[in-house]
Structures are given as C-alpha cells and as structure tokens.
Design a protein that fits this description.
Blueprint: H1 5-23, H2 27-43, H3 45-52, H4 58-71, H5 76-87, H6 94-108, E1 111-118, H7 124-138, E2 141-148, E3 155-160, E4 163-168, H8 169-188
Parallel strand pairs: 1-2
Antiparallel strand pairs: 1-3, 3-4
Length: 189
C-alpha cells in the first residue's frame, strides 16, 4: 500500500519532535549542524543519491554519513539519531525532518515564517512597512523571504507559515473569470 503525503508528514513530525526533545538544551548548536548538513545536501548530488538510494547497504550509508557528521563536529546524540533514521529506512526524510525541526525552534522562539511574493521588485520601504505592520498585528517576530513572480501580474501574495493570502491581480482575474462562467452557466440553464 502506497504511503500518502499525510503519512509522510506524520513520520517527519514524529522524528523532528523527538529530535527536538532530546536536543532542547542545546538546540541552537544542533540547529547549526543540521543547517550545515542541509546546505551540504542541497548542493551535493552525491549526498542526495546516498540519502535516497535504498539499495546501498546500511553500513556503507551509516559510515559515510558518520564521516560527514564528524567533519561537521556533530554531537554524539545527533549521529545516533541519524543512524536510527538509517536503520529504520527513514534517511530519505532527513531534509524535511531538518526543516520541521527548524519550524519547531521558530515556534519556541515565537517566530513565524513570512514569504512575500511581488510581481516586481518592491522598494525596501514597502517591504519594511508590510513586515512591520504584520509583526505588530501578529505580535510575532517574522523571518522574511522575498520572492519575485511576474506571473502574479500585480499585487501581493503573503504566506505566513502555511497560511496563504492572495491579493494578486492574477488571482482576482481568475476569481472574476470563474464568477462570469458560473453566471453564464446559470443563464443558459
């Protein structure tokens, strides 16, 4: 039976929360090591292949990952945690576990992720105004990412953690088009 995205999310969450529980006293140091490992993963095709290859012997994967972690000066319990992922055939979830672990830390530190998507490069003044207004309204520290997407035509798309607010011209035109089609179909029925 195939696993669903919901099953994957549950697995990722359980491992990330478990990792946070065992590292809470030193989560900043662990976060730094995990961020370095994630950056290495994102830039190394060899590491990606190693993480996702289910046909390699586990001891080869374990030794290679341990070598990498030693170069990153990883704590013993982090090495043990990743060995557990290998033994349970869950190493392929490592990038998502690291991302979820970082989200847990952000929640602990009362921070939210904010993604602002503009059609064209906004002024720094506009960005600051939007971020300051949202931080005040939410009473949270926001970790901001700016993205430019000409396909939204104009306006703004705001994503706070997993909640999306779409005030783009593209979305408004799409909604208008749907309402016109609905109204037209009501007239012809």
């Amino acid at each position: 039976m195939a696993k669903s995205a919901k099953d994957d999310a549950k697995i990722i969450n359980v491992y990330a929360e478990s990792l946070f529980e065992i590292t809470e006293a030193n989560y900043k140091g662990i976060k730094n090591t995990l961020d370095n490992l994630l950056q290495l993963y994102n830039t190394s095709e060899e590491l990606k292949k190693l993480v996702h290859n289910k046909f390699l012997k586990k001891n080869i994967v374990e030794n290679t990952i341990k070598e990498i972690l030693n170069k990153l000066n990883a704590e013993k319990y982090l090495i043990n945690f990743i060995n557990l992922l290998i033994k349970n055939s869950r190493l392929n979830y490592l990038p998502q576990i690291i991302e979820r672990y970082n989200e847990i830390i952000e929640q602990k530190e009362n921070k939210f992720r904010l993604k602002l998507i503009f059609a064209k490069q906004p002024s720094q003044e506009l960005i600051n105004k939007v971020v300051n207004k949202l931080e005040t309204k939410l009473n949270k520290k926001l970790i901001t990412e700016i993205k430019i997407d000409p396909e939204i035509l104009d306006g703004l798309v705001v994503q706070i953690n997993s909640t999306l607010y779409d005030a783009s011209l593209y979305n408004k035109l799409k909604s208008f088009k749907q309402s016109v089609y609905k109204e037209f179909s009501n007239l012809t029925s």
